[in-house]
Specification:
This protein has 3 domains: about 130 residues, Response regulator (Rossmann fold), CATH 3.40.50.2300; about 170 residues, P-loop containing nucleotide triphosphate hydrolases (Rossmann fold), CATH 3.40.50; about 140 residues, Helicase, Ruva Protein, domain 3 (Orthogonal Bundle), CATH 1.10.8. It has about 450 residues and is of the alpha/beta class. It has 19 helices and 14 strands.
């Protein structure tokens, strides 16, 4: 059973409540003040906090606010004197589960804790289900290369935090997809992720898009319009191509990141921003700073957690995996009966350098699925530039990132050797030092995996 934490600065009250709930079968911890209570919360597994409202130092209301930051799923019940009901109601607005008044009645306080514990278990179960859903979202970040595994591991560590994230990488590598993945893995997953492409919105409109405006702010501003910071309240704001933002707006963005405050265009009321900011750029941000395109102080504010998405040419071992993923997705989307991609087409994809990265690969395969003449994407279905080997890696060589699973290395090597031998399995087997039967067996295993 999860732990009940009793917080009261008066020892007789703590001991009395500890005895009551121990007899009820609860595991009970006690704390004499708010700071000691926070230490217990950081240790984890506290389902319900039963805290006195009036305590020296940290009050019960301040403890409630801190507890919601540390373990949002923990339910808090406040204990208040008869004349302090208004304060208890304020605690309910701050997120307390319930309040009980002094003098405490055993049946009432036990019933309240029992219901709070049921709520805690329900919240925990919802979190587990959401984690499973988010795990499915992980599959959209397709990749088994060591660089991608390291990237997703780091992103998974920072996702639950509120830290700003700066994602860098070439165009088409999937920076926006990674930002969405981080949002889906965060406690803010139930709220919106709002995207702003700072390079696509004209400079004259970008300020009103970000911060909104009040009536009369400019000619034609008839009513109030909420900005992206308003729309992303409680969620995530994704600033794509942030290095393209005009310098005058970078100052205003910096203020939001530092102070959490902003005003709408033409407004005088200061608003609070409750957003987690994720930014991305296809430029080298340090170079953008030196060139005067990006303010240095803004760079440091955004660059709390830097993540770099590798170029597709730097994780070639993922090309086959991505290709099969895109073929399956677009076959379903376009209603085509396509069962896979043949080895010749796969070889051409693996030899290409992909300057447009994953986006170019996906577009190429969507075209191939639509134009495919049979039930398999073949070499003839690919663009002429790929069929002719333009952009190919050096013939006769394969590259692998350190840490690539041996199964992937073996498959790529066998398939590349078969292509070089024009499908002659006996010759390929001799070159590889294995039997032709081994190649047939491996191919059957691969078909089973697909």
């Amino acid at each position: 059973m999860p732990t009940l934490l009793v917080v009261d600065d008066e020892e007789p009250n703590r001991l009395a409540l500890e005895r009551i709930f121990t007899r009820e079968g609860y595991e009970v911890r006690t704390a004499a003040d708010g700071r000691a209570a926070l230490d217990h919360l950081r240790d984890g597994a506290v389902g319900v906090v039963l805290t006195d409202l009036k305590m020296p130092g940290m009050t019960g209301l301040e403890l409630l606010r801190a507890a919601r930051q540390i373990t949002p799923e923990t339910q808090v019940i406040v204990v208040t004197a008869y004349g302090s009901v208004e304060t208890a109601v304020e605690a309910m607005k701050e997120g307390a589960y319930d309040f009980v008044t002094k003098p405490l009645r055993k049946d009432a306080v036990v019933h309240s804790v029992q219901k709070a514990l049921e709520k805690y278990e329900l919240v925990r179960e919802n979190l587990r289900l959401r984690a499973q859903i988010a795990q499915v979202a992980r599959t959209e970040m397709v990749g088994q290369a060591a660089t991608m595994r390291a990237l997703l591991e780091e992103a998974g560590q920072v996702a639950p935090s509120m830290a700003n994230v700066l994602i860098t990488g070439e165009s088409g590598t999937g920076k926006g997809l990674l930002a969405r993945w981080i949002h889906d893995m965060s406690p803010r997953r139930d709220r919106r992720m709002v995207t702003v492409n700072c390079g696509a919105i004209p400079e004259a409109l970008l300020e009103s898009e970000l911060f909104g405006y009040e009536p009369g702010a400019f000619t034609g501003a008839q009513g109030r319009k909420e900005g992206r910071f308003d729309l992303a309240g409680g969620g995530t704001l994704f600033l794509d191509e942030v290095t393209e933002m005009p310098l005058i707006l970078q100052v205003k963005l910096l203020r939001v990141l530092q102070d959490g405050e902003y005003e709408r265009l033409g407004g005088t009321r200061t608003l609070k921003a409750d957003v987690r900011v994720i930014a991305a750029t296809n430029r080298d941000p340090a170079k953008a700073v030196s060139e005067g395109r990006l303010r240095e102080d803004l760079f440091y504010r955004l660059n709390v957690i830097p993540l770099t998405v590798p170029a597709l040419r730097d994780r070639r071992e993922d090309i086959a995996l991505l290709a099969r993923h895109f073929v399956a997705n677009h076959a379903a989307r376009h209603g085509r009966h396509i069962i896979g991609i043949d080895s010749d087409a796969l070889g051409a994809l693996e030899r290409h350098n992909w300057p447009g990265n994953v986006r170019e690969l996906e577009n190429t395969l969507e075209r191939a699925v639509v134009l495919a003449r049979g039930d398999t994407v073949a070499l003839v279905d690919l663009p002429a530039a790929l069929r002719g080997g333009a952009g190919a890696v050096e013939a006769g060589w394969l590259t692998f990132t350190v840490g690539t699973p041996l199964g992937q290395v073996e498959r790529r090597m066998i398939e590349a050797t078969l292509r070089q031998c024009s499908g002659d399995r006996s010759l390929a087997a001799n070159l590889l030092g294995i039997s032709a039967r081994s190649i047939y067996r491996r191919e059957a295993d691969w078909r089973g995996e697909e």
